Amino acid sequence: MSDTDITHYETRKAICEYGRSLLEDDLTTGTGGNLSARLDEDHIAISPSGIPYEEIDPVDVPIVDTDGNVVEGDVEPSTEVPMHLAVYRERPDVGGVVHTHSPYATTFASLGESIPASHYLIAFTGSAVPVAEYRTHATAELGEAAVDALGDEYNAALLRNHGVLTADESLGDAYDVALMVEYCARIHYQARAIGDPEILPDDEIDRLSGKLDSYGQ
Ligand SMILES: [Zn+2]
Fold first, then answer.
1. Cα of 79 from ligand 1 centre, angstroms
2. Where are any strands of DSSP class E within the chain?
3. Contact (CB, 8 A) for 128 and 138
4. Contact assessment for residue 156 and residue 164, using Cβ atoms and an 8 Å cutoff
5. Is 80 annotated in the active site?
């Protein structure tokens, strides 16, 4: 059987590639973080548990049903599978989910402070990055807290004392949001370190949201 005969080969390959990007872009270290993509109404592909990103092959990427049962792949799925499934369940618009412990955004997560619109690129995620209540990692309760914070209007949330969750139409889009959240967190941190950053008003964020649809194209 050649690689391309594997079911959902392209999506599982994308999970491998974005996993390696997490390390290259300093969004995570070691085996931290996890990512997933919706395959159809009842299934997602998600990064496996405990394998270094450099070593994950498409065939290792588990396919999981909406109850969390592995239907394909010999490797255990990420322990955060309940959180990923909670997002897909509550947000039919979402096709990809990324979870990181990126350092600047996680700094705000540990403070329990949302990241406000001190830079216009926050509009990728909404008017701010809200904070989800603290829940133990790898529990269904963490998933509930995360979807509560995301609501219908945000594409990212901080997981209090833990990290970042992003969700968007595709895995690639969710990955871009994870990069933007870390960038905006870093700028906000730096701005706060030497001054008092001005926050953009909500009506400007609304205006930007429309323009950013074509950002980078
Ligand atoms: Zn985590």
1. 9
2. 34-40, 43-46, 63-65, 70-72, 96-100, 131-132, 156-159, 163-168
3. no
4. yes
5. yes
Class of residue 194 by CB neighbours under 10 A (exposed 0-12, middle 13-18, buried 19+): exposed
Cα 185 to ligand 1 centroid, rounded to whole Å? 17
What is the residue whose two structure tokens read 């255990």? 76
Region 185-194: what's the mean pLDDT? Answer: 98
Q: For residue range 205-214, what is the model confidence (pLDDT) as tens digits?
A: 989 887 776 6
Domains defined along the chain, listed by start = 3-212 (3.40.225.10)
In the numeric block, which tokens belong to residue 139? 């529990």
Q: pLDDT digit string (tens) for 16-40?
A: 999 999 999 999 988 889 999 999 9
Residues near ligand 1 ion, CB 5 Å cutoff: 163
CA of 203 to the centre of ligand 1 (A): 33
The CA 177 to ligand 1 mean position distance, Å, reads: 17
Contact between 88 and 66 (Cβ < 8 Å): yes
- Give me the catalytic one of 80, 144, 169, 198: 80
